[in-house]
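sry for the spam today, last one i promise. struct tokens for design, 300 residues
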């Protein structure tokens, strides 16, 4: 029996084409929950990005693999129940927040303050310094993602192109020296593929995961992926791999589709995802998530 489903966000829950969660997707996630299946997120995104961009608007999720496994948490079920009862999962958040470090209370129902962190892996400071030095020397933009803070070293046209592609807002520029003594859980250097390979050679304890066709790479601690985040959440619940399913579309989803008991690729997925999937559902704009959830319920 599948007891938990891990959903990717970009290209899986939210179409790149429209930037809006389809109604059928919202209904499908509710259908899964109503069938007794825990619904979870597995994304490269920061939880504040999820809030800022309404990436799970109208949907209930109880567990989160964020930053490609670097930061993972499980929400208090009673908190989520109450949020859904009061329709907090339906709210459209218009205010963009890049710094919630001074927040006295949770800024949304899925704020990690409302749950238990089950995996928190920071990038080694010496690798942060290497990346920072290379980006500064070559005038590359880089995003720095802490637990409750997102900022950039500099705003460039390439960074704005990347943010436009994923319909994200411009982050604040801050003094990046803070990254050398404050835990950083993900770096997103903006550079071409050739430059990224040169960078990766200089950070042996980290890895770069490509997540788009453009200039975007997630830099994380080596060996930490969506897979390790999923394992941490399964351990929390006491579930086995055979009791979990994953749905995704991108290069950073390939390993989790192979790893989980049931891997489902979107019809719009990269071919590498489809090659390892147990099932391929229709395109995201053709009610793909609804089909995938029906497949899992019928599988059960």
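last one done:
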């Amino acid at each position: 029996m599948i007891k938990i489903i891990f959903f990717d966000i970009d290209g899986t829950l939210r179409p790149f084409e429209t930037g809006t969660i389809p109604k059928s997707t919202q209904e499908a996630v509710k259908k899964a929950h109503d069938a007794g299946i825990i619904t979870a997120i597995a994304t490269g995104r920061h939880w504040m990005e999820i809030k800022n961009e309404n990436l799970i608007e109208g949907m209930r999720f109880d567990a989160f693999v964020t930053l490609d496994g670097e930061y993972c948490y499980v929400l208090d079920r009673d908190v989520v129940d109450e949020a859904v009862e009061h329709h907090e999962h339906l709210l459209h958040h218009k205010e963009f927040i890049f710094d919630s470090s001074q927040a006295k209370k949770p800024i949304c129902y899925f704020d990690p303050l409302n749950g238990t962190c089950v995996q928190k892996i920071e990038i080694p400071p010496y690798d942060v310094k290497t990346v920072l030095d290379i980006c500064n020397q070559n005038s590359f933009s880089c995003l720095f993602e802490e637990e409750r803070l997102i900022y950039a070293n500099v705003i460039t046209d390439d960074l704005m192109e990347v943010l436009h592609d994923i319909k994200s807002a411009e982050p604040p520029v801050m003094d990046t020296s803070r990254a050398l003594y404050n835990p950083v859980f993900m770096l997103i250097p903006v550079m071409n593929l050739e430059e990224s390979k040169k960078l990766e050679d200089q950070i042996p304890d980290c890895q770069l995961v490509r997540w788009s066709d453009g200039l975007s790479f997630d830099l994380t601690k080596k060996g930490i992926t969506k897979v390790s985040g999923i394992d941490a959440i399964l351990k929390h619940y006491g579930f086995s791999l055979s009791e979990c399913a994953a749905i995704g579309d991108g290069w950073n989803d390939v390993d989790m589709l192979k790893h989980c008991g049931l891997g489902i690729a979107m019809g719009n997925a990269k071919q590498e995802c489809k090659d390892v999937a147990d099932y391929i559902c229709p395109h995201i704009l053709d009610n793909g998530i609804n089909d995938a959830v029906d497949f899992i319920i019928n599988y059960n």
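The first strand starts at residue 4 and ends at 7. ok im logging off now
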